[in-house]
Amino acid sequence: MKTPWYSKKWTAVLLHTAAWAVFFTLPYLLRGPNNNPKPIEHRNENFDILFPTIMDLTWMGFFYLNAFVLIPKLVYQRKFWLFALSLVLIFSWIVAEGWMLYSMLGNPDFRFRQFVFFNFFIFLFFIATSTAYQLIKDRMEMDKRVNEREKENLKTELSLLRSQVSPHFMFNVLNNIVSLSRKQPDQVEPSLIKLSSLMRYMLYEADETKVPLEKEIEYLQSYIDLQKQRFGKKLTVNTCFKNVDTTYLIEPMLLIPFVENAFKHGTGLISQPQIDIELKANGKKLNFAVKNKFNGETEEIKDKTSGIGLSNVQRRLDLLYHKKHQLLITKKEDWFISSLQIELN
């Protein structure tokens, strides 16, 4: 979806620049050319230019420091005493900076009480405006993320209902069961049970917001077993689902696209095809890696109905696990590697 112009970074930069320009030039516009209380012969031109410029930059820096650092790191983390201490230290620095500027720029007329009283209200103004700015900004981002998540859930639900697994896979599994009924009748019942389990998970349990990790693993294992039965000795499949705490919850159908992609692109015109799948989940960390050999010289035709795709998985991860996941997809020699890490609750 195209980003609206008002949501782009350059728009924010222009708006901030315009706001600061208006704010810092307004006192000069209101004062006028003949309102300086000092006689013209006693004025220090360097002081009149440098002092307000440096102080303006200081206030600007405090605005963004409070908005982007103090509020997220201290207020949001309920470290209120540390936040109050930080404000006291910053205001002390501003007062000390004013005194140093008076001394360095050759103006001995520094009135401590008047300077503190005047700048204290400016300090409160910047605390209020920067805090309000960050709170409103975060609330807008949170509302936007919630809306996008709701839209994504609807899109994902539609994609899952239309095609959670490649139709070609289902077609081949059924053909394989027909062949087993003739050659190995004893294998028909286990295959049908796995297929039934897979279909049940897709149609019913995938409607839940989250499912136990154990259910997701069972679904993956059923899918892998049916694929191994389909390809037989033509394909080497190595799986490792050890060291997994199955009590964690996870969004359903989140891992299968990686496995499905491996079987889709890791078979065919490939010498000694191999797929390695590893899953670990402990210490509130889920590590999932899928490796498959691929042939870069052949270009396979994309099946539009073969699941929700890795690009949509990336978007779904961004919405469901914002800043709590890492997805790395690489091609190394003849291997295609998908590595996913998620912080679990």
Q: Care to describe what's here?
A:
By secondary structure, the chain is α+β, with helices and mostly antiparallel strands. Helices cover 59% and strands 13% of the residues. The chain is built from nine helices and seven strands. It has helices spanning 9-31, 45-75, 80-104, 112-163, 167-183, 188-203, 213-231, 256-265, 309-320, and strands spanning 211-212, 236-240, 249-250, 274-282, 285-293, 325-332, 335-343. The strands form two sheets. The protein has a five-stranded mixed beta sheet, covered by helices on one side. It has a two-stranded antiparallel sheet with strand order 1-3. The chain is elongated.
Summarize the SSE layout with pairings.
Layout: H1 9-31, H2 45-75, H3 80-104, H4 112-163, H5 167-183, H6 188-203, E1 211-212, H7 213-231, E2 236-240, E3 249-250, H8 256-265, E4 274-282, E5 285-293, H9 309-320, E6 325-332, E7 335-343
Parallel strand pairs: 2-4
Antiparallel strand pairs: 1-3, 4-5, 5-7, 6-7
Helix pairs in contact: 2-3, 2-4, 3-4, 5-6, 5-7, 6-7
Number of domains: 2
What's the quaternary structure here? Answer: single chain
Mean pLDDT: 81
Shape: elongated
Count of beta strands: 7
Spans with pLDDT under 50 lasting ≥5 residues? 299-307
Q: How would you name the CATH homologous superfamily of the largest domain?
A: Histidine kinase-like ATPase, C-terminal domain
Overall radius of gyration: 31 Å
Level of helix content?
55-70%
- Strand fraction equals 5-15%
Helix count equals: 9
According to CATH, the fold-level topology of the largest domain is Heat Shock Protein 90
Largest β-sheet summary: 5 strands, mixed
Order of strands, widest sheet: 2-4-5-7-6
- SSE series: HHHHHHEHEEHEEHEE
Query: How widely separated are the two ends?
Result: 30 Å
The CATH architecture term of the largest domain is 2-Layer Sandwich
